[in-house]
Design goal:
The structure holds three protein chains of three kinds. Chain A is an all-alpha fold. Chain A has 20 helices and four strands. Chain A has a domain of about 220 residues. A two-stranded antiparallel ribbon of chain A has the order 1-2. Chain A has a two-stranded antiparallel sheet with strand order 3-4. About 0% of the residues of chain A have low confidence. Classes of the chains: A mainly alpha, B mainly alpha, C mainly alpha. The interface between A and C is large, with 42 and 43 residues.
C-alpha cells in the first residue's frame, strides 16, 4: 500500500524546500550573510536546472490514486510535472533568482535578519512551484498557504517600522479571509461532486438539485483566487502592501505570487470546472473589465513609483484574466493566452521593479542617508546620471505599455485580444483596447521624465553588482523576447 | 450497552456521595458556628500576610513565544494520529516509520532554530 | 444536513464578524470561526459521500489555521509594539 514517489518529478520543489531549512539552520549556527545569499540563489539555480532537465523528458506524474482505489475513474494524480507546470516552475524560479539578487543589498540596508529572509523567500518559492504542479484541491490549498504565509512575515520583517507591520496586517487579513472563502467554496464543490481531484470533479455527475450548490462553490473559489492576484473588487490591499514592504518583496508579490496565483486559477478553471464555464465565464469577464479600468484610472493619478507599479499591476491582472472570460468555449487557446501574458508580464514587471529598487538606493551626495519614499518627479534626469539604467527602465515601461520597440508587450496584448475575440467576448476586447490607451499615458509620462532636465540635488548611484546583474538579466530577457516573441508562443502552444 | 452505562452509574453515585459529604460538612458548620464578620476577617487569606494589589494581574508578554511553539507542535501532532492508526497494518512498516521521522525531522529543525535563538531558555 | 446548516450559520457569523468588528484580534477569531465552519462542512460531506477526502482536508485546514494564528499574532504583536493599539481603524499610515 506504500506509494512510490517519483523523486525526479518533485525534484525542483524538494531542492528548494530542503535549501530553505538548510539556510535557516546555517543562519542559526552563525554562517555569514554573504554565504546565505549564495546558498539561496544556488538552490534556486539548481531547481531551475532540474526544471530544464525535466522539460526535455516526458510528462511525469506522482502521488496518484493507487489502482485499487481508483475504480473506473481517471488516474487522479496530485502532482503533475507536465509542460505547463514546468514552464511556470521555470518562470517562478528564474524570477526568484532575480529577487534574491535584488534582496542582497536590501537586507544590509534595512537591517533585515538575513537567514530568516532567505528562509522565508525560499519557502514561499517552494509553495509557488508546488502550486503550479498541484492537480487536486487539497494540494492546491496547502501550496497556496505555503506561498502566502512566509510572505506575510517577509513584509513585516522590517520590525519597529509601523508602515511595514501595517502593510503586513492588511495583507494578512485579506489573505486569511480569502482562504476561508475559498475553502468554503471548495467544501461546496466537494459536497456536490464528492471529489477533490480536479479530473474527477470535471467528470463528476452532479444531480440537477445540486447544480446551484456547485456553481456557488465555483464562484467562491474564484473569489478566493481573485484576492490573491489582486483583482477588483479584491484589489485594495495591493498598493498599500507594495508600498509598505521591502521593494524586493513587493517584486516577489507582484511577479511570483501573481504568476502562481494565475496558474492556480487557470488549472482550477480549465481542469476542474470546465462544465461550469457558463457560470464563471461571464463573471471573469466582468471582473477583468472592472480590474483593468479601475487599475488604469487610479494609476493615472499616482505620484509614487511603487504605488504606480502596484496599480498598473492591478490593471495588468485584468488583461491576464481577460482570455479566461471565454468560459468553456475555446478554453485551451484562452489558457495559452493567459500563460503567455503572465510569462511576458513577469519579465517586464520584474525589470521595472529592479530599476526602482536600484534607484531607491541612491545616496545623496555628501551624506550617507537614503531618501524616503521616492516620487516620480525624482526620476527627472535619470538619463543624464545613469544612461544605462534609464534606458532599461524606459524599455520596461514601453514594454508594459505595449508600444514598439517593446514588441513583447505589444505581442502579449495581441495574443490576449485574439483569444478574447476568438472566444466571442468582443465587448471585453473593446474595453481592453480603450484601457491600453489609458495605460500608454502614465507609462509614457514616467518614461519621458527620465529624459527631462534634472532638477533634484545631485546623488550617487552605486547600485552594487547584484542589483546591476538583476537589471541586466531582466533587460536581456526583455530584449530577447522583443526580438523573438515567437519563443513564448511556441512554448505556450506546446504547453496547452 | 447496559453494562457499559452500569459502570457509569457507579461513578455517578460516587460523585453524588462526595458532593454530599462536602456540602453536608460545610452546611453543618454553617448552622453550628457563630457568625460575626469583621473587615479583617473578610480579606483574602494569603498565609497570614495582608493581600497586595488586585486579582487581575498581567502575565509577562515574553511567554508568547512558548504559546506559538505550543500551537505549532500541538497541531502538527495531528498528522501523527492518522499515521499511528495505519502504521501497524500489513504492507506498511519500516518505510512508513522512516517517512514519519522525516516529518518529525522538519519539526525538530524548527525546534533547533528556536533553541539556537535562545527562546527556549527559562527566564 | 443539519450539520451543513450549522456550518453555513457559523460561516456567516464569522463573515459578519470580520466585516463589523474593529479589533484585529477579534477579526482574527472570526476568521478562525469561518475556517472551523468549513471544517464542519468538509467532515459532514465526507460522511455523506463515504470517502475520506473531506476528512483529510480537514486536517490540513487545522494546520493552516494554526500556522495563520502564529503568523497573525506575531504581526499583531509587531503592530502593537509600534502603535500601542490593535484596532484596525488605527492602522492608517498607508493611504492613497
Amino acid at each position: 500500500m506504500i506509494q512510490g514517489i517519483d523523486y525526479a518529478a518533485v525534484a525542483p520543489v524538494l531542492l528548494v524546500a530542503v535549501a530553505a531549512v538548510l539556510v535557516l539552520m546555517l543562519d542559526a549556527f552563525g554562517t555569514p550573510r554573504a554565504v546565505l545569499g549564495w546558498v539561496s540563489s544556488g538552490a534556486l539555480a539548481l531547481g531551475l536546472a532540474s526544471v530544464i532537465a525535466l522539460a526535455s523528458g516526458d510528462r511525469r506524474a506522482t502521488f496518484c490514486l493507487p489502482s485499487g482505489l481508483r475504480g473506473s475513474g481517471p488516474p487522479s494524480c496530485s502532482y503533475v510535472a507536465d509542460h505547463f507546470t514546468l514552464l511556470f516552475q521555470g518562470l517562478v524560479l528564474a524570477a526568484a533568482v532575480v529577487v534574491v539578487l535584488l534582496s542582497v543589498g536590501e537586507i544590509t540596508r534595512s537591517a533585515l535578519p538575513a537567514g530568516e529572509y532567505h528562509f522565508l523567500l525560499l519557502s514561499a518559492t517552494a509553495g509557488a512551484i508546488t502550486l503550479v504542479a498541484a492537480r487536486d484541491l487539497i494540494t492546491l490549498v496547502v501550496a497556496l498557504e505555503t506561498l502566502s504565509l512566509p510572505v506575510f512575515a517577509l513584509v513585516a520583517l522590517r520590525r519597529y517600522d509601523g508602515v511595514a507591520s501595517e502593510a503586513s496586517l492588511k495583507l494578512f487579513l485579506v489573505s486569511v479571509i480569502s482562504t476561508a472563502v475559498m475553502l468554503f467554496g471548495i467544501s461546496l464543490v466537494y459536497g456536490a461532486t464528492g471529489a477533490m481531484h480536479l479530473d474527477r470533479i470535471a467528470l463528476a455527475h452532479v444531480p440537477a438539485g445540486l447544480q446551484p450548490v456547485a456553481s456557488v462553490g465555483v464562484v467562491l473559489v474564484i473569489a478566493g483566487f481573485a484576492f490573491k492576484v489582486a483583482v477588483v473588487p479584491f484589489h485594495f490591499w495591493a498598493p498599500d502592501v507594495y508600498q509598505g514592504s521591502p521593494l524586493p518583496v513587493a517584486a516577489f508579490l507582484s511577479v511570483i505570487s501573481k504568476a502562481a496565483g494565475f496558474a492556480g486559477l487557470a488549472i482550477t478553471l480549465a481542469l476542474g470546472f470546465p462544465a461550469y464555464g457558463h457560470v464563471w465565464g461571464p463573471l471573469v469577464g466582468v471582473l477583468a473589465a472592472l480590474t483593468m479600468t479601475l487599475g488604469n484610472l487610479v494609476a493615472l493619478r499616482q505620484r509614487h513609483p511603487v504605488r504606480l507599479l502596484a496599480w498598473s499591476s492591478v490593471a495588468q491582472s485584468g488583461y491576464m484574466l481577460a482570455p479566461l472570460a471565454v468560459g468553456s468555449h475555446h478554453l485551451p487557446q484562452a489558457v495559452a493566452a493567459t500563460v503567455a501574458y503572465v510569462a511576458l508580464y513577469a519579465v517586464m514587471n520584474l525589470g521595472a521593479f529592479a530599476v526602482v529598487t536600484a534607484f531607491g538606493r541612491r545616496l545623496r551626495r555628501g551624506t550617507a542617508s537614503y531618501p524616503s519614499l521616492d516620487e516620480l518627479a525624482d526620476y527627472r534626469g535619470l538619463a543624464r546620471r545613469s544612461p544605462l539604467m534609464a534606458a532599461a527602465l524606459a524599455f520596461f515601461l514601453i514594454c508594459l505599455a505595449g508600444l514598439p520597440p517593446g514588441i513583447m508587450g505589444l505581442f502579449a496584448k495581441i495574443v490576449v485580444f485574439r483569444a478574447a475575440i476568438g472566444g466571442g467576448v468582443t465587448w471585453l476586447a473593446v474595453v481592453m483596447a480603450l484601457n491600453t490607451v489609458i495605460g500608454l499615458y502614465y507609462y509614457l509620462a514616467w518614461a519621458v521624465r527620465l529624459f527631462a532636465a534634472p532638477e533634484a540635488e545631485p546623488y550617487d548611484l552605486r547600485t552594487g553588482p547584484a542589483v546591476g546583474l538583476a537589471i541586466g538579466v531582466a533587460a536581456a530577457g526583455a530584449v530577447v523576447l522583443s526580438v523573438a516573441p515567437q519563443i513564448v508562443l511556441q512554448t505556450v502552444s506546446i504547453v496547452t | 450497552m447496559n453494562t457499559y452505562f452500569h459502570d457509569y452509574l457507579v461513578v455517578f453515585v460516587l460523585v453524588l456521595l462526595g458532593a454530599g459529604i462536602v456540602a453536608g460538612g460545610l452546611g453543618g458548620n454553617r448552622l453550628l458556628r457563630p457568625h460575626r464578620p469583621t473587615r479583617e476577617k473578610l480579606t483574602t487569606y494569603e498565609c497570614g500576610v495582608d493581600p497586595v494589589g488586585e486579582g487581575w494581574a498581567q502575565s509577562y508578554v515574553r511567554y508568547y513565544v512558548f504559546a506559538y511553539l505550543y500551537v505549532v507542535f500541538a497541531v502538527d501532532a495531528v498528522f501523527l494520529f492518522p499515521w499511528a492508526t495505519v502504521f501497524a497494518l500489513k504492507g506498511y512498516g519500516p518505510t512508513t516509520l522512516g517517512e514519519m521521522f522525516v516529518f518529525l525531522g522538519f519539526l525538530a529543525a524548527g525546534l533547533a532554530y528556536a533553541a539556537k535563538k535562545k527562546v527556549l531558555s527559562w527566564v | 444536513m443539519n450539520y451543513l446548516i450549522l456550518s453555513a450559520i457559523l460561516f456567516t457569523i464569522g463573515a459578519v464578524g470580520v466585516l463589523v468588528r474593529r479589533n484585529a484580534i477579534v477579526v482574527f477569531m472570526c476568521v478562525e470561526l469561518m475556517l472551523n465552519a468549513t471544517n464542519l462542512a468538509f467532515v459532514s460531506f465526507s460522511h455523506q459521500h463515504g470517502n475520506l477526502d473531506g476528512q483529510i482536508i480537514a486536517f490540513f485546514v487545522m494546520v493552516v489555521a494554526a500556522a495563520e494564528v502564529v503568523v497573525g499574532l506575531a504581526i499583531i504583536m509587531a503592530i502593537f509594539r509600534s502603535r500601542r493599539s490593535s484596532s484596525v481603524d488605527d492602522a492608517n499610515l498607508l493611504k492613497y
